[in-house]
Amino acid sequence: MKKIKTVYDHIRSNNIKTAILVMMFPISFIALVFLFCWIIMPAGDAAVTTAQVAIPTFIVCMVWMIISWAFGDSMMMSAAGAQQIRDDDAAHKKIFRLVENVALAAGLPTPRVYIIPDDGLNAFATGRTPADASVALTRGIINKLDDDELQGVIAHEMSHIGNRDIRLDMLLITGVGVTVFAADILARMAIYGGNSRDDNGKNNTGLVILMVWLAFTVFNVIVSPLLQLAVSRKREFAADACGAQITRNPRALASALRKISGHADVKSLANSRSMAIACIAEPSKAFMSDLFSTHPSTAERIRRLESM
């Protein structure tokens, strides 16, 4: 008899797949640096150069991730322009109670609650652990959704908290920025430095810097976004399913997603590609194909929810 998979089985499977995808970040980065350096030098020299680039990059990444571990949630809330509300805030008492009730149903501590002063329909959660998590809701999503739909959205975000997605998102959002910063430094070095020449008068240092910069650029523009998207999509489906389980009302979340679709743009997040993976829907109207969308198709998410 075939074993029936529980939500916990799906979460465990999802975590394993996500761990594999996360490991692809350093592996693909090392491979790209080596391949681009190998174009202009022997394999042995390319390996040495790769180590000289990768080791300090990883050290900086680890330092930056420690900083993000301590301050990443406040950095994300600040970037979104979010304002915290409390249980004694008369103007938002109903919203705080909705979050509190969903947290109770999910068996999780009540997170800090923030309001983003924007009429777009969106939401996200962040934090290191469920004990210090935060949920942010836009003014638009609060005003446009009914209570059942809003509970569905909050349950989706609480699922991200329970599944530890918030920790992963926070580290990806803040950590990947290191390679973007490094690429910018290399570009400046290629323009203003790198004057070491060999016996034939060729600018070897400048060429090496150029190759490393190309590796960083390919990683930042193509590989890293695709890996982030793969991680994000898997966790969005899982959060939808878990959110529906918390409220016992999958149609409410499906209805919320239908209203959110096409109205999820948030000005403070529109230019932050990395922040998009934390949101319940793509926070920008900018055109992008399904290949580069941070979220699964809304139609597919609705279809799955309505089939429950």
Q: What's the quaternary structure here?
A: single chain
What is the rounded Rg?
Answer: 22 Å
- Spatially, the strands of the biggest sheet line up as 1-2-4-3
Helical stretch tally? 10
The number of domains is 1
Largest sheet: 4 strands, mixed
| Structural class computed from helices and strand pairing | mainly alpha
Query: Unreliable stretches, pLDDT < 50, 5 or more residues?
Result: 199-203
Describe the structure.
With 308 residues, this protein is mainly α. It has one domain (7-306). Helix content is 64%, strand content 6%. The protein is built from ten helices and four strands. It has a four-stranded mixed β-sheet, with helices on both faces. The longest helix has 44 residues, at 204-247. The radius of gyration is 22 Å and the shape is elongated.
